[in-house]
Amino acid sequence: MSISQTITDFTTLAIVSGGWMELDRIYLQNRLLALVGEDQLDPVEVQPVTKTSTELLDILITKAQENKVIGTALYEKEILEGQITDLLTPPPSVVNALFAQHYDKDPKEATDYFFKLCKENDYIKTRAIAKNIIFPAETEYGDLEITINLSKPEKDPKQIAAQRNATAVNYPQCQLCMENEGYKGRSNFPARTNHRIIRMNLNGESWGFQYSPYAYYNEHCIILSEEHRPMKISKKTFERLLAIIDVFPHYFVGSNADLPIVGGSILSHDHYQGGRHTFAMAKAPIEKEFSLKQFPNVTLGIVKWPMSVIRLQATDTKELIEACDYVRLAWNDYSNPELDINAYSKDGTVHHTVTPIARRNQELFEVDLVLRDNNVSEEFPDGIFHPHPDVQHIKKENIGLIEVMGLAVLPPRLKTELQEVENYLIEEENDIASYHVKWANEIKATNKLNKDNVHEIVEREVGKVFARVLEDAGVFKRNQKGQAGFQAFIDSL
User: Fold this and answer.
1) For 366-424, how does the pLDDT look when each residue is reduced to its tens digit (9 = 90+)?
2) For residue 448, with 0-12 CB atoms within 10 Å meaning exposed, 13-18 middle and 19 or more buried, which class applies?
């Protein structure tokens, strides 16, 4: 395909996207010519487009590199990709107006529109996400989900060198700030020219709704505060979460905890994560129901889950919010030293918080409160309620919101490391990492292994390790002593 046909076809897709009209064709074509370093456009026929936007984008990027518009550094390519795909993306005001039009008909129609736009303009990196290794893991807690995250590209040496020499810039303040919308990017900050944010009013505050570029599950979205402020779990958190699922009843929404070790990767900007996905934790049953006389219209129960979870359900959101905050405040002050559960250090440092998740369950509003404790000890310097050393060969990172719900986000190193484990197990030539050997020998001792079954067995064993990781993160262990401790906390309410 000629570059002129590519530019013409890409322009056609830009017009179809809703941000331009046929009258804009010459303008758009000239914009694309300039972006890829071409001097002229040969006459070609405007015809139905047979290639996808990303296939056309690849041709345009290759031409820009041939014309020395950009070098081979990854960040240069991503900046130009953002500038080109920005032409596929209506301005923020238009996107918000179209979203509102769809929403007036049906909330799901609105999110369908925005999700489709963000995929077609390559803001959601669908091709990179497709590289992730995903498999289910059957456990006593239901089918957990395992993802080996291969979607985020590794920084190349040129990018690392450019970052080292980059001038310090504090704009945008972080990757979740509103100022990312339309931002060109630089060697040490992602390109966001094609990024759009839907504006939301949550209880009188300005918030934004966007999708995650490297989604871990279906329609993985982020709801972010317009104000750059640290994450904080409070009564307002429950008010906002329930307001969000009132706006998007087909989505769940949750918050990372607001403390180090048990929190997410970005604690500097108040935000929540949601999406259209049913996690194993949402399917997990109530093991033991209980009630609180202060909240007669709220049903409560302990969830059958490796972490310590209290589920609250009600049709009335006001009473549900009050009950959630009552449990949160009680947990924040609760200690049980026999179980290494301590709310405060001697210097007054706070160690307790919750990871809350809200969803609709038919006519009910439902909130899961996951009890979190970020204490450390000599035995467990990474965290008492954090993956313990014997499972860190698989997962040593924080257990955030996504893992809490039953989806493991595992590091890319495991793609090759697990292959070496498989080779070791069937006694083929291998380069197994030393920290996997003990685990591999345990698998050997309990399984009859061969070439045909080794891959499936290793995946199953990874699932078992992830279940153990979640048990480590649980404050009340799933043994007699731990469950008695959980009951003591419930009784204290």
Assistant:
1) 999 999 999 999 999 999 999 999 999 999 999 999 999 999 999 999 999 999 999 99
2) exposed
Angle (CA) 7 8 10, round 5°? 65
Which secondary-structure segment (H or E) carries 120?
A: helix 107-120
Q: Which of 62, 60, 181, 52 is closest to 120 using CA atoms? A: 52
CA–CA gap between residue 127 and residue 485 (Å, rounded): 47
Q: Which residues lie closer than 8 Å to 64 by C-beta, 6 or more apart?
A: 35, 36, 37, 70, 80
Asked if 228 and 174 count as a contact pair (C-beta separation under 8 A), the reply is yes
pLDDT in tens, 200-235: 999 999 999 999 999 999 999 999 999 999 999 999
Spatial CA neighbour of 284 closest among 321, 248, 258, 309? 309
Q: How far is CA 380 from the centre of its chain?
A: 27
> For residues 340 and 378, is the Cβ–Cβ distance under 8 A?
no
Distance CA 148, CA 131 (A): 9
162 pLDDT above the threshold of 90: no
CA distance linking residue 216 with residue 132, whole number of Å: 9
CA-based angle 278:282:287, to the nearest 5? 155
d(CA 309, CA 280): 13
Buried-exposed string 153-168: b where 16+ CB fall within 10 A, e elsewhere: eebeeebeebeeeeee
